[in-house]
Specification:
Elements: H1 5-12, E1 17-18, E2 24-26, E3 32-40, H2 46-52, E4 59-64, H3 76-84, E5 89-96, H4 99-102, E6 109-114, E7 126-127, E8 131-133, E9 136-138, E10 143-147, E11 150-154
Parallel strand pairs: 3-4, 4-5, 5-6
Antiparallel strand pairs: 1-11, 2-6, 3-7, 3-10, 8-9, 10-11
Length: 161
């Protein structure tokens, strides 16, 4: 059994980071957790597609899209890739599209909102680096937990005792 974000917060505060509560939840999976894998890109989802086409078992993809609200960083095709490759969930500092289809899929996604415009594909961006947004520093291989009460980051995986 996995601890809730509230339980982890109670146990570890102040040694927990809290994502600002402005993210919307998409997909059927309302809670997910895993070690952090990062992508930093701006209005170009090429590296997101590459990441989601690799095995993501036990991992959450954290995407720093610079908070852009101008184009979607992923849609139903990338969400399908994530499901097929066993990603636990996705956090997007930006927007997504195809939300009606994604909301019927067994994936958990948190994003700032939606936009129908797709991103460009020029291969610009970086992977597996430390990134920061929305009051959190995301370090690859630290752990992220998301549920109906919010999203938190801890240095190590929390095990139910």
């Amino acid at each position: 059994m996995t601890l809730s974000t509230c339980d982890i917060s109670d146990k570890l505060h102040p040694n927990v980071q809290y994502l600002e509560p402005v993210y919307k939840s998409f997909g059927l999976k309302k809670s997910f957790s895993g070690h952090i894998v990062t992508v930093k890109c701006f209005e170009d989802n090429s590296l997101i597609a590459e990441a989601l086409n690799n095995n993501g078992k036990g991992s959450v993809l954290v995407i720093d899209a610079g908070g852009s609200m101008l184009c979607a960083m992923l849609g139903d095709k990338r969400a399908s890739d994530a499901i097929r490759n066993e990603w636990e969930g996705i956090i997007v500092y930006g927007v997504i599209r195809d939300s009606a289809a994604i909301n019927l899929m067994p994936i958990g996604i948190r994003a700032l909102g939606v936009c129908p415009l797709k991103s460009v594909k020029k291969g610009i961006g970086k992977r597996n680096l430390n990134i920061s947004f929305s009051n959190v520093k995301f370090t690859p291989d630290q752990y992220i937990y998301a549920d109906e009460d919010g999203v938190i980051v801890t240095e190590k995986r929390q095990i139910y005792e």
